[in-house]
Amino acid sequence: MAQKKPKFYVVWQGRKPGVYDSWDEAKVQTDGFPKPLFKSFDSKAAALKAFKDKPHVHIGQATKPAGKQGKIDGLVGLPIQDSLVVDAAWNTATGDMEYQGIYLATRQKLFLKGPYADGTNNIGEFLAIVHALALLHQKGSNIPIYSDSRTAIGWVKKKKANTKLEETDRNAELFDLLDRAETWLQSHKYANPVLKWETTVWGENPADFGRK
């Protein structure tokens, strides 16, 4: 049996761009990274030369998987196991909301909060991300945080929960938590990437409450 030829991997966009001698090394730089750009080459010389070029020179339409889902899979990769995943649950009948966070590699639950009266799912997702950021900041950890809510991720980036929910006596505690979360975001710096959990590729968010 012929010996398999070695491959060399160029990572143009990842945690640490560069040329890697094995897929295991390149995978660490690309898995779970938003929109990574990478490609394999048959020789190290070719890889080193390609690394100096713009990625679009080597990653053209012909190198992309066919079909919309194939393109998504090719860009997303796999989720980073050393990460914290959050999710929220909102009861449409009672209006109660709760949220939780787990460590992905072991599925250990790190926090569970609620239920809070008269909330919304977006508020829960937002509070879950900020809770995760505060917890990891306290621990001195810069691991990524995954959420399946683009809305909540956007709120975190803007450091403001853009909710249209009206404050009442029943949800006063929840609005106090929102104020504290916004204050935390405005007064703290963090290096944790807040990433989208790609449900269409990876399946259900592991922090999901399983009540759908």
TrEMBL record:
Binding site for Mg(2+) 2: E125, D148
GO molecular function terms attached to this record: metal ion binding; nucleic acid binding; RNA-DNA hybrid ribonuclease activity
Cofactor binding description: Binds 2 metal ions per subunit. Manganese or magnesium.
InterPro entries associated with the record: Ribosomal_bL9/RNase_H1_N, RNase_H1_N, RNase_H1_N_sf, RNase_H_bac, RNaseH-like_sf, RNaseH_domain, RNaseH_sf
Pfam families: Cauli_VI (PF01693), RNase_H (PF00075)
Domain RNase H type-1: 78-212
Similarity field: Belongs to the RNase H family.
Protein name (record): Ribonuclease H
